[in-house]
Design goal:
Shape: elongated
Strand content: under 5%
Largest sheet: 3 strands, antiparallel
Distance between the termini: 67 Å
Helix content: 40-55%
Order of helices and strands: HHHEEEH
Number of strands: 3
Radius of gyration: 24 Å
Length: 175
């Protein structure tokens, strides 16, 4: 067996960590913003369940192909396992592309503000009410559909929505 420093793995683990972070944040945002409020916990649980199923499949692959992974890697074929996982990943990517093309972003339960532009959630006492204000609340259904793109987290309306959500949470805490 060759003597290789364990620190060579730090690059791979760093890349895996970055990939996990990007995947987790995207999936949490998707499951939080695209489902009804009453289903958010269930969907987050399903998200975590699919992650754990993926880890179980990985463990199964390692068990099935353990004859390719001996203690002395100079005498094994670990690259065959990596090729197998790469093929499964490509098949999964193809399935993901097929499913994601039919996905439609929705505006379920998203409240943006009150329509006066200050983001305080309180309606102003003026005679001119914007046409997209109903009961003092502007909804995203009146915002152009481009605001619901995958880069929705960068949209300027997102900050107003977050401020409104924080105010609502603060109100429910005190009352």
């Amino acid at each position: 067996m060759h003597s290789i420093s364990i620190w060579w793995e730090s690059i791979q683990y760093t890349l895996i960590g970055i990939g996990e972070i990007l995947t987790s944040i995207s999936s949490y945002e998707l499951f939080y913003s695209q489902v009804p409020e009453s289903m958010r916990s269930v969907c987050q649980g399903l998200n975590l369940l699919t992650t754990s199923i993926g880890f179980m499949i990985t463990g199964g692959i390692n068990s099935v192909f353990s004859f390719w992974i001996p203690n002395d890697l100079d005498h094994g074929h670990l690259e065959y396992v990596y090729w197998f996982v790469a093929i499964i990943t490509l098949l999964n990517m193809g399935a993901f592309v097929q499913v994601s093309q039919s996905f439609e972003y929705s505006d379920v339960g998203l409240v943006v503000g009150d329509g006066d532009g200050d983001g305080d959630g309180e309606k102003q006492d003026n005679d001119e009410t914007p046409s997209n204000v109903t009961n003092g609340i502007t909804t995203l259904s009146k915002v152009p559909q481009t605001s619901l793109s995958p880069n929705w987290t960068k949209h300027p309306m997102r900050a107003k929505w977050r401020r409104h959500q924080n105010k609502e949470r603060a109100k429910s805490t005190y009352y």
